[in-house]
User: Fold these one by one.
Assistant:
Number 1:
Amino acid sequence: MLRLLLILAVTCLTLAVPHEKLVEKRSSAIPIIEEYHVIDGQMDWYEAKAACEEKNWQLAQPRTQFQMDEIMKLYVAGFYWIGVSDENHEGNFTYCSDNHPITYSNWDTNEPNNEHGAENCVEVWKLAGKWNDVNCTVVRASAFCEQHGPVCEPHMRTFDERTYNFQGIGWYHLFKDCSENPTFEVTTKFEPREDSTPDNIKTRTIAINVTVGNQYAIIDGRDVTTGRTGGQVTDAKVITVQEEEKDIKLHFTSKDTTFSLKWTLRKHALDVSYSGSFYSGKLCGLMGNADDDPRNDFQKPDGTITKNAIEFGESWKVTDKK
Ligand SMILES: [Ca+2]
Ligand SMILES: [Ca+2]
Ligand SMILES: [Ca+2]
C-alpha cells in the first residue's frame, strides 16, 4: 500500500500534475472569506450559529475593519449575530470557530458591559456596525454568516484523501502513532509564506521533527540534526535522512511499515508516503487515521470527530513548542 500526501503552496495549475496530491492549508487566524450572507430571522445566538453551519457557512467573525465594512453592506436594520462570544471565559472574547482571542472589535460606547452578568454573545445593532454583548439566548436577531472559499488555494489532504482548508501557524502533529504502544510522531512547523496577506494567509512548512522511540531527527530548513535520547548506542538506526540538492528525504520504519517524507524546500512541498498495513486506522493527526475512510478523518486527540476543519486542525496543535 502506498499513500502520498503533499503539502504544497502553489496555484491550481499544479493540480494538473499527476500523482501529486495537494494539501491546502488555510489560516485559522484569518480565514479567506469568499462571501458574506444574511440569514433573516428571530434567532438566539445558537440558532444563528447552527443556521449558518447548516449552509456550510459560519457565523461571521470580522477580523479587520475591512471585513466589518463588507459585512455592513448587508445590514438593513435591527440586530444581527456575529461569531464572537466570551462564553468560555468572562471578558475574553473569542471567535467561535477556533476560540482564538479576537483581533478586532467595534464595540459601541460603554460596551461590552456584561449587563446582569449574563451577556456573552455579540450582536451588531447599529448602521455603523457597532457591537453589543447581549444574552446568548435572547431571540431577536438575524445572522451574519461568512462563507470560506475553497477554490484553487493550496490545501491539506489526509491519507484517506479528504481535502480541507487549514492554514494554522506554529507546530502541529502531522501524523503520529496512535496504536496501543505508540512509538513515533511527526510534527511540522508552519509559518506564513512571503506572499501572504492579512486577508489571505498561505503557510508553508519550515521545520519537521520526527521521533521514533528514543531516536529523533530535527530538520530546520537545511539544518539536519539526528540523535538519540538515551538507550543503547548500538540500537539500529531507524531514521535515515538524505540531503539532496532540491530536497531532503527522510525514512523511518516501525512494525511492518516504512514512512517516507520528501520535503522540496523551494516548492514548499512536503510529500508523505508509506508502505505497510499495521498502521491502518492507527494513525492520528492532521493526516487522519489512514483506514481508507475519509469520513472519520477529522478526529481530535480526545477521540471525538468534528465537522469543522479549523477545529480539527487546531486540535492537533503542539501547544508546548515554539
Ligand atoms: Ca460576558
Ligand atoms: Ca451589552
Ligand atoms: Ca479515515
Number 2:
Amino acid sequence: MHQVALITGCSSGIGYETALMLARNGYHTFATMRDAKKSNPLELVIKKEKLSLSILELDVSDDASIEKAINHIQSEAKRIDVLINNAGYGLIGFFEDLTLDEIRKQFETNFFGALNVTKKIIPIMRLQKSGTIINISSGAGQIGFPSISAYASTKFAIEGFSESLMYELFPFGIKVIIIEPGVIKTDFFSNCIVSKHSMEKSSPYFQSLDRIQKNMDLMQEHATSPIDVAKLILEVLSYKEPNQRYILGNDVAMILEAKKNLSDIEFKKMMMQNII
Ligand SMILES: NC(=O)c1ccc[n+]([C@@H]2O[C@H](COP(=O)([O-])OP(=O)(O)OC[C@H]3O[C@@H](n4cnc5c(N)ncnc54)[C@H](OP(=O)(O)O)[C@@H]3O)[C@@H](O)[C@H]2O)c1
C-alpha cells in the first residue's frame, strides 16, 4: 500500500521539490498550494513522468480551505501517513519598525497555519495508529537574528510546539520531526515581506537593515539546493526511530554548533564579529 503524504506550500521551493521527491519515490502525494494558478510547472512534470501526485488548493490561513483539502484526501486516499508543514514566508524589519498587524499575519501563516493543519490531521493519524508530522522550521528556530525577530519568533514557536507534540503523540505511534534548513536557494528571499516602516528613510534602522540585507544576499550565493532538503525529508521518513531535529546546510550547522559549545557572551561576540 502506498503511503499518503500531504505537503503545504508546494507552488515553489522546498515544498515543490519535496512533493516531486516523495511522488517519485512511491508516495501518493498531495501537493497543496494556496493559489492553484501557480500549479503549471508541477503539472507539467506530473504529466511527463506520470507521477502519483495530485495538486489541491490549501491556504493555511483559511480554515475552510484546510478542511476542504483534507476531506478530499480522506475520501480519495482514505488515509494520511505524512504531513509536511512547509508553507511560510519571512517578515523583514527591525522590531520597532514592525506593526503588530504585520507580526500577527506572520504568525497566522508560519505558526497558526501549521497548527491548524496539524490539528485536523492528528485524529486521522491517531485512528490509524501511525503517521509522521514534519515541521519545516529554520536555523532561525534556534537562533535570533536582527531584522527577523517576528520570523524567528514563529520558528521558535514551531520548535516548542513540535517538541511538546512529540511526547503527546508518541503513545499513538505518531512521529514529530523538525527540519532546520540554513539558507536554501528558493524564492523565499524575494517572497519576503519587508515591513512598511523599514522602507522609510526616516527609520533609525534603515542603514542597519540595508547592511544586513547585503549580507543576506551574499549568503544566498552559497545556499543549499531545495532538492537537498527534499532528499533529507525522504531519508528521514524511512527511519524507524528518527531524531527530533535535522539540520541542513553548513552555515546553520556551524552556527548551531557554536551556540551549543560557547557561553552566551562568547556566542554573542562571535555573532557580532562574523555574522551580523
Ligand atoms: N529558503 C530558505 O532559506 C529557508 C530557510 C529555512 C527555512 N525555510 C522555510 O522553508 C519553508 C518553505 O520556504 P521556501 O524556501 O521553499 O520558500 P518559497 O519558495 O517562498 O515557498 C514558500 C511556500 O509557502 C507558500 N505559502 C505562503 N503563505 C501561504 C499560505 N497562507 N498558505 C499556503 N501556502 C502559503 C508559498 O505560496 P505562494 O507561492 O502562494 O506565496 C510557497 O509555496 C518556509 O516555511 C520557510 O520558512 C526556508
